[in-house]
């Protein structure tokens, strides 16, 4: 029973991904006055789904190797290590979020 519900969730996620990719492809096709076949959208969806699965496995492996049960930003940064531009964008975003969180914490402590 658990497998059936897990497969159902996976199929629903894949359908949502197909819809989102289809919308992006349609929008871009209209912008460029081109056409994309449903087969192209299906193949692109399969490609993206496979990449998502691989990323998820890698992130879980990094987390487990570090002795954690939760994936952290450190795992994401480690995953992006081979793409320096992507790693830089992610690092900047993480730093901004941490700074905002620290600022909020300081502000809430002053209000006490």
TrEMBL record:
Record bears the keyword Nucleotide-binding: no
Any one GO BP annotation for this protein: DNA repair
Q: Can you quote a single GO CC term?
A: FANCM-MHF complex
> Keywords for this entry?
DNA damage, DNA repair, DNA-binding
The answer to whether the entry has keyword DNA damage is yes
Cross-referenced InterPro entries, in alphabetical order? Answer: CENP-S/Mhf1 (IPR029003), Histone-fold (IPR009072)
| An MF annotation (GO) of this entry | protein heterodimerization activity
Query: What family is reported?
Result: Belongs to the TAF9 family. CENP-S/MHF1 subfamily.
> What name appears for this protein in its UniProt entry?
Kinetochore component CENP-S-domain-containing protein
